[in-house]
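Open question from group meeting: does this chain pack into something compact, or does most of it stay loose? Before anyone orders reagents, we agreed to write out a predicted structure and look at it together. Recording both the input and the output here so the notebook holds the full record.
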Amino acid sequence: MEKMQKMKRMQEKTVIVYHMKERPYEKLIVWQESHKLCLRVYTLTRGFPAEEKYSLVSQMRRSSYSVPTNIAEGNARRTKAEKVRFLDIAIASLEELHYQGLLARDLSYIPKKKFEEMDQHVGRVGYLLHKTRFSLL
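Structure tokens returned:
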């Protein structure tokens, strides 16, 4: 009986983990780098003042996740023109994020060094986006 109870407890604790196949966009270096940038922005904005939660924090986060989101969506499109259109949206979101970072720096929400690190990352993602875009033309 004790053995049965032990087995039942083990069954209750069993967690099934499903591993999704890697999506095609996840193999793109531009997507990987933009995803890392998005994670960096989420970390940076945690320390912002509470009154910025629904304004600058929200805007920066939306801009940052718009970049990898549009890369992923564009990658799923059939035509080169559609792919380019979504890369253009990602580029625009990246520029928006860059300005928001400048504003956060000037408002002293992020230290100059953290902004410079983010700025370098934005530059890298921008370079990769432009290279990817021009490879489709």
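Observations to bring back to the group:
The longest helix spans residues 80-106.
The chain has one domain: 29-136.
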